[in-house]
């Protein structure tokens, strides 16, 4: 009897389990499931939260968020797209990297009819997600990045120094810090791309917007005195980088700054959130690259990280477009900015974090992060040239003139305005 | 029609052979032959991003070897592969031979050392790369700290940041990682030598050096053949240690660039600097593959001829 009862219970339980399974299967069938690929493993919690909000608004759509390591992302994505697969919604990069994916027709072109929210973005942000050849936008931009100097407020206060306005003040500041046995800049140059961020973070105000215009039009090239002189300034100030800086790679320089053993870090605004997460007690500030003489325009270098795009081969395009429209609203931009401490380019967002507010204020006055925005479409890319030649110059193996000449020579091989 | 027992046996035998042979052939064709052939085919096309464009014949090959942009980069990297091959031949294989001889003589604690020398080979290359990167850190790394502690401050350097030492540092890290492999292979080779030969040589009053040079070295020739060939292939496919320790760019300023890194950057792009060119990447991969196949075969043939049967 006892035994029969148990059998019965078991049967009922099993029946219930099977029924429940079938029911949930039916529910899933009615839903459109989107896959969404990203390289931002560290933002997973944020995206899952956003997806929950989206699913509450659009109950018939569900989104699956999947991440891949940033260094392999492009490769994995390329392979999947080339094989005719890939996710429905794709986090893509900008500029030249966007073109490699968008030009073959893997991404759905967007316009103000299909995505009215594109009006929420400044033109320069949309330009970052536009293919130059057809002038069409292929993704909803997600973040503004700026190159500037991050500094440790406590070290500055203890040493009795203030953020510099001019280059001379910066030089005086580094001397004051050194006299107190503090490493002024945590930076090192062993990781190639760090050289490009350092140039933009420290030299933008000396180069100036006019220099960028002249480069674009071909009125000037990279042998221009403005560029050579700026490089020479960088060479001088590099004596204040971390000890043995030519052998210090990116993670080591970050550690030096996070540990409070250096006063400044010349690099991206994206470092701030990273530094704070590793050491929440850090009190940080930011300033734009110092000007050559008082009265000059103070600039930071700006670019856009990438965007959210729709796979042109997806059979769930309508749902995917709904999702990226959701990612283009000021509400989303506000959540993105405040939770990730990463500046959204969407207009009309409300920023809570004071440092992000400072970054946003500085970003109002900017030039392009030049090599990425203008010269990362062909080989040798401006970035490859700048990174290796500045690295070589800072190692003392070539002069600023030689570095500038090498960079110019490489870009001239394909850049028409320089070929006159 | 009735089948004779003999026919049945043959049939059974044949299907057994087919059962054994067909799966690996299918597997090889699908995952080895097909990708190689398709990479070969890709190399003849122009690529716009990921989309295959027009047939361009040998243009990609020409660009890779002699183009103004790729040419100097590729030859610079090739030279570094050659350096690595020569240096590793001496340090890794030569060192392995000497270590094997020491172990062969069974000194005190040889059982422990036989295991110890092989342990780094078992470690993941990624771990070894990171470990050596830490050792070589200019400010808190073991190498410089050791130099400071014995007063050799002048020798301390930013090893991986100095263009004159970076490649050497990578080669040493690689040798540390893999020296156990030639050691073990040579040790096995030495243990195969009949002990009468060595005893006879000793009775004839050879010095240790003569014994090594005239008796042991020629008799371990089969080990040398396999080790030299594998090292040749490894040196031209070198990727993991440079990738982990200096990054995709062959930092600083190309002084550690090797063909594996150039291939990866070209075919897949370097996220923080460059864009991808599938056609040139495939062309480089094809050239590299043919080069390795041809030279590794020639090397094996040449090395085989000096092997002695005993």
TrEMBL record, chain B:
Keywords: Cell membrane, Membrane, Transmembrane, Transmembrane helix, Transport. It comes from Microvirga terricola. The keyword Kinase does not apply. Belongs to the binding-protein-dependent transport system permease family. It is a multi-pass membrane protein. Pfam families: BPD_transp_1. Residues 74-299 form the ABC transmembrane type-1 domain. The lineage of its organism: Bacteria, Pseudomonadati, Pseudomonadota, Alphaproteobacteria, Hyphomicrobiales. The chain crosses the membrane at residues 16-45, 82-103, 115-135, 166-188, 215-239, 283-303. This is Sugar ABC transporter permease. It comes from the Bacteria. It is found in: Cell membrane.
């Amino acid at each position: 009897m006892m035994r029969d009862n148990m059998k019965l219970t078991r049967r009922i339980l099993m029946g219930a389990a099977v029924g429940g399974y079938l029911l949930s299967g039916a529910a899933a069938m009615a839903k459109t499931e989107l896959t969404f690929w990203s390289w931002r493993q560290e933002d997973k919690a944020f995206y899952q939260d956003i997806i929950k909000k989206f699913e509450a608004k659009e109950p018939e759509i569900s989104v699956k968020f999947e991440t891949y390591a940033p260094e392999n992302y492009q490769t994995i994505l390329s392979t999947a797209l080339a094989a005719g697969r890939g996710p429905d919604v794709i986090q893509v990069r900008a500029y030249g990297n966007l073109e490699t994916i968008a030009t073959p027709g893997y991404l759905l072109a967007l316009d103000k009819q299909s995505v009215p929210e594109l009006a929420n973005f400044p033109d320069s942000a949309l330009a970052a997600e536009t293919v130059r050849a057809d002038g069409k936008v292929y993704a909803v931009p997600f973040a503004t990045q700026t190159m500037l100097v991050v500094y440790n407020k406590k070290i500055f206060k203890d040493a009795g120094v203030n953020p510099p306005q001019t280059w001379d003040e910066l030089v005086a500041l580094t001397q004051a810090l050194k006299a107190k046995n503090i490493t002024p800049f945590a930076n090192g140059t062993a990781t190639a791309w760090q050289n490009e961020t350092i140039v933009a973070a420290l030299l933008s105000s000396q180069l100036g917007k006019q220099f960028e215009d002249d480069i674009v039009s071909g009125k000037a090239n990279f042998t221009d005195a403005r560029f050579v002189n700026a490089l020479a300034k960088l060479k001088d100030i590099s004596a204040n980088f971390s000890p043995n800086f030519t052998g210090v790679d990116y993670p080591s320089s970050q550690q030096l700054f996070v540990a409070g053993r250096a006063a400044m870090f010349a690099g991206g605004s994206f470092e701030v959130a990273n530094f704070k997460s590793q050491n929440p007690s850090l009190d940080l500030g930011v300033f734009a690259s110092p000007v050559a003489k008082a009265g000059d325009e103070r600039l930071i270098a700006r670019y856009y990280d990438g965007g959210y795009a729709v796979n042109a081969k997806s059979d769930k395009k309508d749902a995917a477009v709904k999702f990226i429209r959701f990612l283009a609203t000021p509400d989303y931009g506000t959540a993105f900015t405040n939770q990730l401490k990463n500046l959204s380019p969407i207009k009309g967002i409300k920023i809570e974090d004071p440092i992000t507010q400072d970054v946003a204020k500085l970003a109002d006055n900017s030039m392009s992060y030049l090599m990425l925005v203008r010269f990362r479409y062909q080989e040798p890319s401006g970035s490859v040239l700048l990174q290796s030649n500045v690295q070589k110059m800072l190692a003392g193996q070539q002069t600023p003139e030689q570095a500038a000449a090498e960079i110019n020579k490489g870009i001239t091989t394909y850049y028409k305005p320089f070929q006159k | 029609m009735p089948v004779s027992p003999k026919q049945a046996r043959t049939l059974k035998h044949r299907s057994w052979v087919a059962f054994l042979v067909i799966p690996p052939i299918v597997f090889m064709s699908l995952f080895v032959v097909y990708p190689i052939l398709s990479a070969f085919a890709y190399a003849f096309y122009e690529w716009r991003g990921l989309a295959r464009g027009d047939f361009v014949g040998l243009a990609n090959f020409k660009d890779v070897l002699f183009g103004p942009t790729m040419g100097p980069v590729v030859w610079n990297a090739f030279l570094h592969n050659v350096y690595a091959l020569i240096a590793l031949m001496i340090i890794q294989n030569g060192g392995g031979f000497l270590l094997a001889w020491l172990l062969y003589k069974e000194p005190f604690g040889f059982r422990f050392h036989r295991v110890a020398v092989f342990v780094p080979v078992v470690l993941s290359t990624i771990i070894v790369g990171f470990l050596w990167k830490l050792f070589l850190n200019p400010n808190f790394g073991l190498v410089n700290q050791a130099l400071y502690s014995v007063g050799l401050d002048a020798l301390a350097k930013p090893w991986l940041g100095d263009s004159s030492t970076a490649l050497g540092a990578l080669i040493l890290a690689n040798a540390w990682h893999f020296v156990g492999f030639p050691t073990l292979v040579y040790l096995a080779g030495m243990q195969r030598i009949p002990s009468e030969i060595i005893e006879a040589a000793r009775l004839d009053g050879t010095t240790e050096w003569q014994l090594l040079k005239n008796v042991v070295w020629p008799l371990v020739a089969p080990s040398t053949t396999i080790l030299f060939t594998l090292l040749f292939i490894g040196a031209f496919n070198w990727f993991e240690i440079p990738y982990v320790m200096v990054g995709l760019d062959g930092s600083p300023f190309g002084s550690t660039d090797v063909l594996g890194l150039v291939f990866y950057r070209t075919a897949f792009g370097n996220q923080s600097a460059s864009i991808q060119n599938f056609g040139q990447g495939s062309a480089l991969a094809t050239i590299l593959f043919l080069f390795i196949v041809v030279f590794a075969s020639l090397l094996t043939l040449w090395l085989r001829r000096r092997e002695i049967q005993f």
